[in-house]
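Figure S7 source data.
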Amino acid sequence: MVDVRLVPLTVAHVPDLLAAMADPEVLRFTRTPHVVTEEWLRGWLAGFDGHDRFGWAVVDPAGAFLGYAVTGPVDHEGAEAELGYAVAPAARGRGVATAGLLAMARWAFHEAGLLRVTALVSTGNPASSAVARRAGFTREGVLRSVHHRDDVRVDLECWSLLPSELPAT
Ligand SMILES: CC(C)(COP(=O)(O)OP(=O)(O)OC[C@H]1O[C@@H](n2cnc3c(N)ncnc32)[C@H](O)[C@@H]1OP(=O)(O)O)[C@@H](O)C(=O)NCCC(=O)NCCS
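Tokens for the predicted coenzyme A complex:
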């Protein structure tokens, strides 16, 4: 497994995030706006308050930015959260997203005490479906016509992982 670390996202990551979020696949498959401005990005970063939402840069052992990994709003009462991820184009195809998703799942179960995490993957995003599958998630089914952004609605595969299913490292 490729060696990655999660470090909290900060404004120091703005240039790397702007570059990663300019990628057509990121624009297509994530909810980032079609034109990502630095102002929008700073607001997005401010939302990771370490209670309701968490966000990390996925970096290599030398600290180089490879991608990002984020939670949706954490349901503390229900002990659940949605996990999301994106990898910079130059770092794709060598397991970075899978390792990053597993690192988030370990954080969720071992540090945050969550009991269920999900990944919502657009139908037609086989690379991301493969990431969820390789990280040990189970495909539960398809959520239909979910609001994506603006007037766009998409079908989303719902994948989930429970603590007992976390692959050994
Ligand atoms: C999806 C994404 C995160 C994958 O990142 P990555 O670091 O390349 O992923 P990994 O290397 O861990 O795994 C990719 C898997 O998808 C497979 N894959 C890649 N392209 C594929 C395709 N077109 N069809 C089927 N499988 C594909 C790879 O073979 C690999 O699986 P394997 O290891 O079993 O062979 C990256 O492409 C990305 O950032 N896309 C844009 C944003 C996005 O879609 N985010 C997810 C939103 S749910």
